[in-house]
Amino acid sequence: MKKLLIVSGLTGSGKSQMVQILSEQLKTKVIPVDSLQIYKNWPISSNWPKKLNNYELIGKYDGLKQTISSYHFKKDVMEILKQKDNPILEGGCCFFMNYLLNSRKEQFEEDQIKAADLEAQKLLENCGDPQALLKQHFKNYDDSINTSDRYRIQKALRFALLTKGESITSPFNQEDPRLCDEMDIRGFFFTEPQENISKKIYARCDEMIRQGVIEEFYQFYQMLEQTEFRVTTPLGYDEFVNLLKCFQNIFEGRYISNRRAEKQKREYVLKFIQQFYIKSRQYAAYQRKYFRSNLNQFLWLDNRTLNLQQLILQYYNCDRQEYESKVVSPQNEQFKNELSSKLLGKQNDPIPPKEIQEIVYKAVQTIIEQ
C-alpha cells in the first residue's frame, strides 16, 4: 500500500518550515490542504511559503470568480497523487483534510453534479428570497443556512436537485473506498502549550500587518461587490471592513472635534488588531478540537521536540503496525487531550505593540484620504 505523509498542526506551530525541509530531503512535491492558499488573492493572509517551486495548487484559483468546494479540492489532489511520487500534504484546514481522507465517492456522476450546479446557479441569479427558494426545493428545510453564503446555498440546491429534495448534504456511495482505506496514511499533528502558541499567533498576525495585509484586504474589498453573496475570505477581513467603515464615518462626520476623532480612530485600530489576534487564536482552538474528534489517524507531536524531523521520518518509514500502536498509545492520547488547550480560545485581550497599531492606523488613514 502506497504511503501518504501528512504534516498538520495548529496555526503557527511550524508545520510549513518542517515540510520545506522534508520535501527537500525526500525530493517530492507539497500539496497545501488550505482553503485559502489555493486562491491567488491571499498570499499574505494565507501565509504563502517563500519558495513555491515545491508546491502544487497554491494560487491556482481566483477567489473573486470561483469558490472551490471540498469536492473540487479532493478532485485536484487525487489527480496530483496519480502523477507525483510520494507528495507531502501540509496544512490545517480541518474540513478539507477530513473530506480528503474520509469521504467516499458521491453517488452521482460528475456530469450530473455539473448540470445540477448550473441549474442551481440559474435559480439563484434573480432570486430575491433564497430561504423561500430552499424551502421550495427541500421537503424538510429548517432555515439552517446563512443566506449570505452563496457557496452553501448553491451547494444545498445542488443536492436538492440531485436527490429530489431528500438531502441537504452530499449523498455518498457507502461501498466506495475512502482515501484512508486506499493509502497508508502517516499523519503528524504539531501541538504546543497554549501560552506558547498564543504568542506565536500574535507574532504571526503582527508580521502579516508588516507585510501589508491591510492593503491586501483593501485590494480585495475594492474588487468585491458588497451586494453579492459571501465569498471565501480570511480571518481578519470582516473586521477590516468594519474598521474601514468606522474611519469613513468619522471622516464624513461634521460635528466631531479633531481631538475626539483621533481618539476614536486609535480605539478602533486597537479593537481591530485585538479581534484579529483573538479570531486567529480561536481558530487554533477549533483546529485542535476538530482534529481530536474527527481525524484519528494522526500522531500528535510536541513541536518543541528535539530532532522532530528524524522522529517524523522514523514513523513514516516504520511498518504500519508500529505506527498504529504509537497513534493509540497513552502518550498520544495525552497530547490530544491536553487540559490547558481548552482555554486556548478564552484568554484576556492581548495588547498589540505600538508599532503595529501605527502601521494599521497609517494604512487605513491613507486609504480613506485617497
Automatic annotation (TrEMBL):
Stored InterPro entries: Dimethylallyltransferase
Domain of life: Eukaryota
Record GO biological process: tRNA modification
The entry's keywords: ATP-binding, Nucleotide-binding, Transferase
GO molecular function: ATP binding; tRNA dimethylallyltransferase activity
PANTHER family for the chain: TRNA DIMETHYLALLYLTRANSFERASE (PTHR11088)
Protein name: tRNA dimethylallyltransferase
Taxonomic classification: Eukaryota, Sar, Alveolata, Ciliophora, Intramacronucleata
